[in-house]
């Protein structure tokens, strides 16, 4: 199903309510996964699940007793710049913190989108990877601008997909 027009908060909420009412799933929803677009956050971050808190009672959210980040000698574990490590994992930590604090909220951010943003941030800090990706980008642009090259690839039943960028 495709949503036509602008994806304003009113339109998204109206469509969401239509879908859950049509399928009679109002009381069956556990979570709604969205990307971190401002309109999704504005619409869905305030919706609470009814009677869902009991599911998480006596649930130990942090079972990992062997977390290396809790070690007193953290400098020995990470010789590299810790600030860079924490910068790359900030988004994932925000998601986990949100889960721990807001267990009753309906909306969760999409982990795949969050992971993509972390990878993009990591590549930006890795000059070798950025240089290699720039070369690949040139090859892709050449492929899509050269009919002769594209036809040769087509004869081999091969294609080079367009780049899909994530914020």
Total individual domains: 2
Low-confidence stretches: 52-71
Beta-strand percent range:
under 5%
Q: Identify the overall geometry.
A: extended
Alpha-carbon distance between the two ends: 24 Å
Question: Residue share in helices?
Answer: 40-55%
- Describe the sheet with the most strands: 2 strands, parallel
Radius of gyration: 22 Å
The largest beta-sheet arranges its strands as: 1-2
Order of helices and strands: HEHHHEHHH
Strand pairing plus helix content: what structural class? mainly alpha
**Global mean pLDDT:** 73
Number of distinct beta strands:
2
Number of helices: 7
Could you characterize what this model shows?
Helix 1 crosses helix 2 and helix 4 (82-101) packs antiparallel against helix 5 (111-125). This protein has helices spanning 9-22, 38-44, 74-77, 82-101, 111-125, 127-145, 147-155; strands spanning 32-34, 107-109. It has a two-stranded parallel sheet with strand order 1-2. By secondary structure, the chain is mainly alpha-helical. It folds into 2 domains: 9-125, no CATH class; 128-167, no CATH class. The protein is built from 7 helices and 2 strands.
């Amino acid at each position: 199903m495709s949503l036509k027009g602008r994806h304003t908060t009113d339109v998204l909420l109206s469509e969401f309510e239509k879908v859950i009412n049509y399928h009679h799933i109002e009381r069956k929803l556990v979570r709604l996964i969205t990307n971190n677009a401002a309109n999704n956050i504005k619409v869905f971050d305030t919706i609470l699940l009814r009677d869902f808190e009991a599911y998480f009672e006596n649930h130990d959210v942090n079972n990992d007793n062997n977390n290396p980040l809790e070690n007193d000698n953290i400098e020995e574990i990470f010789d590299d710049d810790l600030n860079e490590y924490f910068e790359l994992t900030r988004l994932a930590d925000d998601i986990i913190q949100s889960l721990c604090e807001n267990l009753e909220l309906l909306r969760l951010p999409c982990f795949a989108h969050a992971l993509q943003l972390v990878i993009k941030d990591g590549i930006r800090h890795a000059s070798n990877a950025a240089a290699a990706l720039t070369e690949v980008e040139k090859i892709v642009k050449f492929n899509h601008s050269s009919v002769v090259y594209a036809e040769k690839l087509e004869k081999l039943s091969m294609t080079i997909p367009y780049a899909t960028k994530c914020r």
